[in-house]
Queue: 3 jobs
Job 1
Amino acid sequence: MQPRLLPLKNKSILVAGGAGFIGSHLVDALIGEQPRNLVIIDYIFKGQSNPDNLKEARRNFPSLKLYTTNLTDYNQTKKVLLKEKPEVVFDLATIPLPTSLIKPYWTSETMLKIILNLCELCRKGLFKTLIHLSSSEACGTAQYVPMDETHPLTVRTPYAACKAAGDLLVRSYYYTFGLDTAIVRPYNNYGPRQPIIGSYAAIIPRVIHRILHNQRPIIFGDGKQTSDYIYVKDTVKGIIAVYKNKTTRGKIINIARGQEISMNNLVRTISEIMEFKQKPIYKKSRVADVRRHFADTRLARQLLGFQAKIEIRQGLEETIAWYSKRKANLGNED
């Protein structure tokens, strides 16, 4: 028998990192759940968050509130929580992976302070439920496939190490203090609003950007490395499903399509959709690149009945259309 689902209707909800790529899509989806109060805390980190991502949300939920509070500041975060009294917090606050390669100490300190503050404030009763977003980066390159939730944490970057540490901290608070928590581990996300930043920018928006400017796509390494891509609107449905199902508490849940695609095939598909005939440029592989990502999605199917609906080509077509409409505002590649 399926457990009774927890409603979000008429709840007070806070989204940490809600002005970011995935966060803003989650905010849009949460509005459809008809919450009583919807609040965002986002420090608006350059290249990660953008208030423009919330334009649609503000139209659909005029009372939406955005606090540019630094979540590493325990007292300021506590002040917002005391004022808004959220029942559930979705934690998507993070620092981009590329920053951890330039400022590893600051990135690590920031990411760990954020999750520690939220765990501690939850422990002290300032909100009831914490849904924390992990990352497939916490697992590193696949040691076996498909990669289930118990896959070793073979991290390669400070960012990945912090994501792995965050998972361990959240679970420790669940086991030690009985916190109402669950961890979502999304795999490689793509879709509208994904930023284009620096040499470690996500491949999908970067390839689209280059083709829109009649430049050949760049592939780092031999292009045989794989990722498990999931369209962002599928991801946020999975996140909400994790909250609604109490059997997820204390668990890590993979949210992915459960299919892998090589970078060669990914770039080829984008080029076909955009009718771009030139071959990609191959460059030396990068230190942060993983060789293989391919998720085991059985647990999400068993517990949540969740399965990603949007196939890669459909998602790419929608993503390309979104960037194409904004070509004039994209600027030149970093």
Job 2
Amino acid sequence: MPRRVAIAGVGSIGSKLTRALDEGIPGFTLSAVAARDPTKAEALLSGLANPPPIVPIAALEGYADLVIECAPAPLLPAIIAPFLSAGKAAMVMSVGALLEHEDLIDLARARAGQIIVPSGALLGLDAVTAAAQGTIHSVRMITRKPVRGLVGAPYLSAHNICIDNIKEPLKIFEGSARQAAQGFPANLNVAAALSLAGIGPERTIVEIWADPTLSRNTHRIEVDADSASFSMSIANVPTENPRTGRITALSAIAYLRKIYAPLRIA
């Protein structure tokens, strides 16, 4: 029987996943959707071949074997904890929120559940994970984003940093991945994912630049390990939400497709 999948949140990421599952991903079926705005969800589902029910977040676990969280970060525990408690799986897009709720990882371990973090807007997490089987000496990520993708970040408000009218690139942050995820919760899920794949959120160093010359979100990773030293860069095309790259939803779709694929590239 196909595994039942619930989608929590139907924004730029959730809507793409919903359509992809409706069109068909081998081994999976779309079984339920939860949304803060039911009217928006109804409009999306009306165009599907097999629209699932719209249910409250608290009811999702009874409808699915796997939940994909695509909602605002504060909702993460409410969405995935019931699935983990039942020994089920949860794919997390708000990865930064995991650093604030590491008890969810303990819950997954205790109840034989699983938290899945797709590659999202980053690349090379497989290489970082492989290097972590040995010794990683350092990990640094340099993020450069268009101004409109950073405006409103809590870190900027807390430190009275105004970037609205800058004319040249400006470094606005340097610190740990944990600090980056706290200060830029809508922007730095990639930093959290990188830290979890490698040497942790305290030792992973992040630089953030606001760059008025850019139209894409760019990330460069630099890793020094006993097995290899490597660097990788990616420039993501944003969705209608300037904080989210188009490849983020595609990474989740790709993960689902390779679960039952006859040839799987890990």
Job 3
Amino acid sequence: MAVEPLRVACIGMGWWSDVLADAIKRSGKLTIAACYTRSREKREKFAVKYGCRPSPSYEAILADPEIEAIINTTPNDVHLETTRAAAEAGKHVFLDKPIANTVSEGSAISQCARKAGIVLALGYQRRRESHFRFIKQQIDQGVFGKLVNAEANISRDRLGQIDLSSWRHQAAGMPGGVMLQIGIHYTDVLEYLLGPVKAVSGRLAQLVLPGDNPDVASLVLEHENGALSTLNASYASASEYYLMNIYGKESSAYYDVHQGLRMLKRGSQTPVDVPCPRNDTFLEELDEFAAAVRGNGMPEMNGDGATRSLAVVRAGIASAHEGRRVEVAEILASD
């Protein structure tokens, strides 16, 4: 028997809402029934583009019995307000990362979803990329042996592309700048591959872009298994670049956006190319969300996991501001 597509409403009409809406259109498991943002022009334009109805208010969406779930790409600082309202209305929520700007709000979001019994999924698509899935499989099979170190870089060129009126590029809306906005994807991948982070040492800088937010950041992550990893994130580089190298006692893996994935085992002299076809990570996470709402499985990244992920970045921000090593447990207890 065919499963009826999950009827969703999209709220927050920015460029990322279109990224997720495009993925929904590629899926047969969800359908966009309605949309809302405060700008009438934006919601009407979105409605025409994606064949849904523009709603006059968020309250109208929550009162609509046809809507089963919310795709939420609103600003970080209203994630709690919008998700709590959805939960109280019995609507499931797919929420873009980060879960919030503070750990306390992230915890509150997770708690309200749990109390209401709704599915809460967070958009962390990077960990789903086929090369990282392959590395994780090899780690779990013992191919790497003891994990000892990793290095990562996630960089984009944003010179001349920054809209200072956007919450995404203001310290109040995106504290920690580039590290919270995109660096969090690779702190997540590093935890996914090497295990939970215990403590963080960080540095932030504003070197090229206008505004009041860091455009360059570096973290040293201490994992609970003893391994160390480093992460550089930048909006000030001349080009887009992604790097993830994982070092184990028995094997190492080298990934970058230009050369793909290679592996080198102990005793070998030349890395071996590992073909990893590009997969549709947005489609995968949204299909997983739809399946979870229908009672099949659970989201890979839920509210609790996303709150802990946020705590790692918040520890790095605190370290940069205070000039000291900061334990993740301290942030979880106080932020």
